[in-house]
Amino acid sequence: MPVVRYHYALVDDLISREEFDRRIEKKIEDCGNLADEVAAALLVVRDLERSHVKIKGLRGRSSLFCFYAKILACSEVKEFDRADGNKGLVARVTVADETGQADLVFWDEQAAAISESFEVGEVVEVIGKHGKSLKEIQPLNLRKTHVEIDCEMTPKEHKQPERKDTNILIISLQPAKSFTRKDGTSGEMISGIVGDSAGTARLLCWDAVILTGCTPGMAVSASGVLEKEGDFGGREIVIDENTQITPAEERPDIPHTPLGEVQPDQTVTISGELVQVQPPRPFTRRDGTSSWVRNVRISDGTATLPLVLWDDEASRPLLTGEKVIIYHVPARVGRTGETELSVGRGSCLLIIPVANGERITIDGTVIETPGGKFIDDGVQAFFLIEGEYQHGTEITLHGIVSGKRLFIDGNEKSNVSPDVVQAELGHLLQSLG
Hints:
By secondary structure, the protein is mainly beta. 14% of the residues lie in helices and 45% in strands. Among the domains are: 162-247, CATH 2.40.50.140; 259-352, CATH 2.40.50.140; 358-431, CATH 2.40.50.430. The chain has 6 helices and 25 strands. The strands form 4 sheets. The protein has a 5-stranded mixed barrel with strand order 1-3-4-6-5. Helix 2 (17-30) packs across helix 3 (37-47).
């Protein structure tokens, strides 16, 4: 059934191709052989809750997605030079539904044929995948339909970002990454999350030297930044060679959204108490690599919502009852229909220490367990810690105790014999049951 291979890609993370074909045959049989393969495939996809999405919500879990849209405009076919010296063709078709607009991008033979195959005002069913941005779609299958869509017929203009001056709070910074410019020269860029009085934004700095000395938690005055809509939604603040960064005296107040007001397709900052923490679970990505996912629930007094933690955030030790702030977290509709928050690399989760926590100094051994890293003094005190501390390291830590966690603000190495390390490990394992 090659004609429905794109429909299978909508659910390829749920069932095998053999099972998909079997269900199609069953649907055709149940319909008295009145449904063709495409119609039956769409019914199977619908039964698996992976049916058509709206343009506003093109963030599916599967490798592809399917949606209906009305054609608003078709661009001229443009010729361009490829890196290998060959010529290429590209054309864009602007489509929309009642929730938003997107651009379908066609290449080469498809680009040459698109203007002759479809007309403005027609409604099409699109099966596609993301291109270079959230609003740029590479269609893999396109067909005319009789579905009616009532939407604005005027294509929106793509606004060019303007430079502005603003005070921002640096929330998180990723390690610098190397990249190659179009002219062949190399550079280093830094990404992260920043916030201001309007909310949070993804940070892109194309010259790592500009952020020298900047650390998370620091407020800075940034002149000449570019603010625009990100390729995959939300705000994006860009720092380049035309930007000046200086320390700021006042920290901007970043607005928090009460959990009871969180809506799907928003990116918000929230805070609350972890009321349920499940163990992390391993999973395998489509590319064969392994990672972790974890389910948590958070409450702020107005509502309780599920959190889904991914990758490093999922493997991070968390305790029930801890207070957290989560910056720049997207909300979506979960499998159960409940609004859920998805915490991954684009978000920042901070654990808040209790007020007036006790300041201590502890000499002990770093012990790594499935539940996280601990510092154990070999007598009666042990606390959960975070940081680049190797298992078995003898160290003196200074910090603030918050429940069962130690927030570290200083450390010194110490020298203790291996026998003491072994005794402390036995003590910790016994205390953990």
